[in-house]
Amino acid sequence: MPLPPHHPAVPHGKVGVLLVNLGTPDGTDRRSMRRYLEEFLTDRRVIETPRLKWYPVLYGIILNTRPQKKGRDYATIWNRERDESPLRTYTRSQAEKLSAQLGDGVVVDWAMRYGNPSIASRLDALQAAGCERILVYPLYPQYAAATTATVNDKAFEHLLTRRWQPALRTVPPYHDDPVYIDALARSAEVHLATLSFEPEVVLASFHGIPKSYFEKGDPYYCHCQKTARLLRQRLGWDEQRLRVTFQSRFGPEEWLQPYTDKTVEALARSGVKSLAVMTPGFVADCLETIEEIGVENADIFRHNGGVDFARIPCLNDGDDGMAVIEHVVRRELQGWI
């Protein structure tokens, strides 16, 4: 039915997809790092410690000391050509490639939970483009409240401010999806075939969470273990060949174990001379994979007697990585397109 005379044009009838990753600072300087860390570390999903106990530590110590160190770390991996972190580069590319794969019928955009572009700004942009239905895709194969849930929280929180809300779907965890498992396996096989050595052990290093979060009912640990079990089956490896560890712990609280850095050290001291590490929980390379695994843990391994160390890259925006993202999106858009 035609619009009444003089009715303003209203874009409508489109479907949107919003890819969302963890976040990135806008720069490596102290101010940018502090702003990013403050947003991240004040998220109640990330730090569940009571505010009265946590804020004095955060504002009195952490935000006065940590920005400089993290800024130096980011500077070692910074994309100088685009003046941005690799995570921003990869996430943008994933969105652009997904848009080409899906065609004109779907509008694809990307955002960061912490930093820019914000979830709110990109939801608004999608709605302004005529998207009446939007799929929010937290880029985390394994569900955790501190990752997947906080992305969804932010999206729903923004909808509270909107008079005219689009319909919203969110992507569930896909830690055991055969397409994802096969992509990880192929990535490992291809990369290992390029090495001049055969790793004695391969670690599947996942980002850690406090053990107390798991004890409260978070399924993350179980999702990581299932991913690893299915990956072993696909590769034909046993538990000694592919071992699960957890990285990036923060603060004095006990986190999920075994810890990646402690495992790397123990393996080297036990006589293991060749090691490879893959990071199945990350869909794109970032500080935690490039610097923490590729530099810090490589140094730990060699310092304790290891010789050959390899970091297996994330799926990123390569063909296998994009096949996973497209598969998940098409599955979750059924009935909409």
TrEMBL record:
Give, as one word, the top-level EC class: lyase
A biological-process GO annotation: heme biosynthetic process
User: Where this protein primarily resides, as one coarse class?
Assistant: cytoplasm
Identify the InterPro entries for this entry: Ferrochelatase (IPR001015), Ferrochelatase_AS (IPR019772), Ferrochelatase_C (IPR033644), Ferrochelatase_N (IPR033659)
The EC designation for this entry is: 4.98.1.1
Gene Ontology cellular-component annotations = cytoplasm
Q: Which catalytic reaction applies to this protein?
A: Fe-coproporphyrin III + 2 H(+) = coproporphyrin III + Fe(2+); heme b + 2 H(+) = protoporphyrin IX + Fe(2+)
Molecular function in Gene Ontology: ferrochelatase activity; metal ion binding
Q: In which pathway does it act?
A: Porphyrin-containing compound metabolism; protoheme biosynthesis; protoheme from protoporphyrin-IX: step 1/1
Give one Pfam hit by family name.
Answer: Ferrochelatase
Instruction: Determine if Cytoplasm is one of this entry's keywords.
Output: yes
Among Gene3D superfamilies, the record links this protein to: 3.40.50.1400
Superkingdom is Bacteria
Tell where it localizes: Cytoplasm
Alphabetically sorted, this entry's keywords are:
Cytoplasm, Heme biosynthesis, Iron, Lyase, Metal-binding, Porphyrin biosynthesis
List each coiled-coil range.
none
What residues bind Fe(2+), as annotated? Answer: H207, E288
Record-stated family: Belongs to the ferrochelatase family.
Physiological role = Catalyzes the ferrous insertion into protoporphyrin IX.
This chain belongs to the protein called Ferrochelatase
- Originating species: uncultured Pleomorphomonas sp
Q: Which gene encodes it?
A: hemH
